[in-house]
């Protein structure tokens, strides 16, 4: 992790929702696996207190973006799986376009000066 | 040593303190924790390190709580969020539907539960009806707290007692002399036998005839439907009829002013009163003016001790202290009959007996003591409660036994966010549902068995009795109580499961409740064995009493019952010889009573010893053939002889008890002594014989030949052509007593009727014991099937390893055998104690029947094995491949 800069707390908080939706849009998943996935794609730069995603998941569920169900794994482990809803997909699209807008704006601002008209 | 599970429990308890975290949330967090630890241990960490590392990566309980709080729905703010309410709705569409579905799914268990509770509720419903009826007798009267019977306490050298009949002039004296008395009535019940009542072509024998003075209808508040209240019972030879009697004899005719003939006396109907309810001891269907009775019978006149025939009922004025009033009147006998009493060496005192307690209590001089009836009431209430407890035990037993099966459900529900409280409500709801379903069935059972109930208890009730507020409220209350009592333990037990633990399949709940269930089964069998032994003791005692020599022959003794005393005073010899013409009539005697029927007491004393040896003893009047007809041996002196003129009225025979009571050591010593001042010689002594059933001791008895009091003719008959014999007897009777109603009975039947209470008790006990056993067996059946299911794998393995089927069956039965044997240890002392107490009621009682105890234990064991065997055999013969396939 050496040399990596950590994402600020505020940004983590703001990005949690789109990140969770983005993972779930690819299929049903459960809390622990979701966290592992986030660590994987961020290379460790997105740092969450492990279990802090659960309140967020619950909030998303209350908002109707995802639904949950308990399942028992083959190993007898109890897991709560989350699945995105139609409403969630729309929310994901909206979030995605917003973040893309921000991303594009920043990219444009950070382009080398040569590109200036 | 690091105990992972203990640490996790500690951590979980920490989270549980946080109000924002629900069980489901905690389960999810725990699931996460375990995943993380699994990852750590997979890369070589030990449990402790993995646990600490996993915790280090988690947020604190407080921070989590704060976040979770935010995650709650903004609208409403109900703890059950919309999300999981929907989730719940999908899985559990209402507790009721769930309960129903569960019942249908587990048909066997549900059937056992509902059946046991139904039987339990029905049994206690009947017990309730029985108890309510018995306790309502004469307690419903208006101002019942001011109503008393004035009883008579009598004490002589031979003993003391309190009797209902009192001095004839007592009621008028009380009313005239004591301002405390509002009303005072005389009441006279007429005869031991039903009397003929005739109006024109309608003639019946009626049992409920009494004679009373006018105040009776005011004291008991008997409604006078027709007639002048000022005239009712005032004049001689008048009568009040109950509504049903008026209809029976007069139909649509107006009964007022009509003349009915009651026991040969013409009486004018002066009124119609309401029908006496079933729950009063004063069955006033035919209420004659007491004047006609008292004025013609000379012995009823004046203050005469020893004539105890007239019952005195009084109503005190409001505010009168009964105890104080009792002290005031206590010594009235000494005031009016002091001299005679002194001569007799007797003490007579007045005792106030509250009317409402007359039925269930017996009076002593100082207080009331519970009568046999009240004891039986207690016994049956106790048995009903025991049966209910049995049914509830079944419920608890089966519910906890099946807890393993329901643990998964509890886990999922909790994980889904259900709170423990909700689960408790759900489980209680289920048991209440089962209880109410059982109540509905029990009501049907009660309605179906009301006729049988009447046969058992003699109490006629219809279905509306169940709608009485007290009954309905009690039954519903009872049902709620049963539902709660049997549901609360399973509810608390099941709802305490930790979801993660359960769903990981690490909870061996089937074993956890084993000790409780064993205790319950042992308790059930202890109760059942207790009841079995009780039943056997009752049956044994009744059989013992019946098998005892009575001292006289009761079989093949036919009796003609005359309407009243003295009807054959002058011609009994003719009647007898007419009867004896029939070859099957072997002997005949005229008498005032036969064993098992009522018998009066008369006062006797050895000549000159009135004060020292005076005694009221049972007094039988019979001719010289009585002892021959009943095969009663004469032990000293001689029996009455026809050819000795003075034997009629002028001689007497005592039984051995009688001789002893007067102080003569041997029978021979008594013969030749004289009695009373006349004097009357004692010509013989007969061997003691039982006049009453064996509950009562043999009493001193005197026998005299007094034709004026004969009212029965008893015959020793050959029964080979009984109808022919009876036809002959009837022909003779009709010819000699035209216009009379012919009535006969057999001595053995009449005598055995004295054991009616015991026989009925025995029958009731048998029914209740059957019910209790049935419930206990249901419980056992449910439990065995469950255990067989649980041990299916064990049995499979044993079988694969070569165990034999009989070996396996005995393995499974052994456990139950132990339980039943243990139950015996509890049941025996209880049965012994109660049995001994009950047997103390009998003058002649069987020795403590230890064989019956063994028999009871054996029966219980056999029934238990029979119940268990089906399941054991099924489990033992099952193909092990089936049970082991999924391992």
In short:
The complex is a heterodimer of chains A (117) and B (887). Chain A is an alpha+beta fold.
Write a concise keyword list for the protein shown above.
heterodimer, A: 117 residues, alpha+beta, Arc Repressor Mutant, subunit A, three-stranded antiparallel sheet, 4 helices, globular, B: 887 residues, 4 domains, 33 helices, elongated
So how many helices of chain B? 33
The total count of helices of chain A amounts to 4
Low-pLDDT regions of chain A: none
Protein structure class of chain A: alpha+beta
Low-pLDDT windows of residues of chain B: 74-93
Largest sheet of chain B: 14 strands, mixed
Q: Which of globular, elongated, flat, extended, rod-shaped describes the shape of chain A?
A: globular
> Approximately what portion of the residues of chain B adopt beta-strand conformation?
15-25%
Radius of gyration of chain B: 38 Å
Tell me which oligomeric state these chains represent: heterodimer
Largest interface: A-B, 25 and 37 residues
Count up the domains of chain A: 1
- CATH fold name of chain A: Arc Repressor Mutant, subunit A
Q: Strands of the biggest beta sheet of chain A: in what spatial order?
A: 1-3-2
Portion of residues within helices of chain A: 40-55%
Rg from alpha-carbon coordinates of chain A: 17 Å
Euclidean distance between termini CA atoms of chain A: 39 Å
Tell me, briefly, the overall form of chain B: elongated
How many separate domains of chain B?
A: 4
End-to-end Cα distance of chain B: 33 Å
